[in-house]
Amino acid sequence: MEDFLVISSLEKKYRLNKRQSIIEHSKTKTALNGLSFSVKKGEIFGLLGPNGAGKTTAMRIAAGLIKSDHGDVFVNGWSVKDNKMEVQRQIGFLSEDLRLEDFFTPDYLFNFFAFLREIPKNTIEKRKDMLFKRFGINKYAHKKIAALSNGMRQMVSLVLSIVHDPPLLIFDEPTNGLDIVAARGVIDFLKEMKSQGKTIILSTHIFNLAEKTCDRAGIIIDGRLVYSNSLSEMTFNHPANGQTDLEDIFFSLYDECGSGEGTNREGKE
Q1: Angle, to 10 degrees, between the axis of helix 106-116 and the axis of helix 121-134?
Q2: Are strands 168-172 and 224-230 parallel, antiparallel or unpaired?
Q3: Closest CA to 157 of 142, 137, 138, 143
Q4: CATH class of the domain whose range is 3-90+168-266
Q5: Which burial class, exposed, middle or buried, applies to 177 when counting CB atoms under 10 A from its CB (0-12, 13-18, 19+)?
Q6: pTM for this structure?
Q7: DSSP H helical ranges for 93-149
Q8: Which of 68, 101, 191, 210 has the fewest CB atoms in 10 Å of its CB?
Q9: Taking the C-alpha atoms of 106, 167, 31 and 265 in order, what is their torsion angle to the nearest 10 degrees?
Q10: Tens-of-pLDDT digits for all 269 residues of the chain?
């Protein structure tokens, strides 16, 4: 099976403000440190790690929203550095950074995003009707965003990210702020998209979500991929003796990295 997304040797540093510099004892902070992995066409890959590990930075670089200091991202063979517009046509990116203006309605925003994505007019209403029904947005279609619950805002954000029916979905913490019913809806949607042949990368710190949805996963700590394998191999054939739970595996690796003993491990499949 061919790789649809390739993350190649990404490095990224951020300049800290004066207060942050004092706290960190440095003028810069390394967000990514040679991050590399690939996602095969038609699979769900989980990028797992704690807050601040570099997950969101990596996803934003992959979506062409920020530039890396070094390395590149390839989507279906296209370089995000050299062909950003073509890459963005193939990506649906859901992030907590997406802020919906309170005075717009889901209906208006869908039409606006569809226009930006150059979707034919005769397709817009059909796709809107299908997605609004799928995520229970119909009865809120003409209500202002300010009147919606946090969970419903998240559903609207999800729909807007896939308005153009992209082949690659990049979801950064998609279940944050959702109740258990809405979160289950997202899980079912991810499985449905996989059955349609979509390629999905799921960035999360919720291990249970990864266990329910992912084919393969990688664990990122301090901007480095420290372990990667299929979910079955990670949970049943991990070097940490007797570990059968993703959370336990993560903490065993986290402890190693914290003591300076962590190394990159690419699982054999």
Answers
A1: 130
A2: unpaired
A3: 137
A4: alpha beta
A5: middle
A6: 0.86
A7: 106-116, 121-134
A8: 101
A9: 140
A10: 789 999 999 999 998 887 777 776 778 889 999 999 999 999 999 999 888 889 999 999 999 999 999 999 999 999 999 999 999 999 999 987 777 899 999 999 999 999 999 999 889 999 999 999 999 999 999 999 999 988 899 899 999 999 999 999 999 988 887 888 888 888 999 999 999 999 999 998 888 888 889 999 999 999 999 988 888 777 655 555 454 678 888 888 888 876 444 445 545 33
> 107 is written with which tokens?
């209906």
Domain segments of the chain as ranges = 3-90+168-266, 98-165
213 within 8 A of 174, measured Cβ to Cβ? no
Taken in order 101, 106, 109, 114, the sign of the CA dihedral is positive
Alpha carbon of 51 to those of 54, 55, 221: distances in Å? 8, 8, 9
Structure tokens at 89: 């046509």
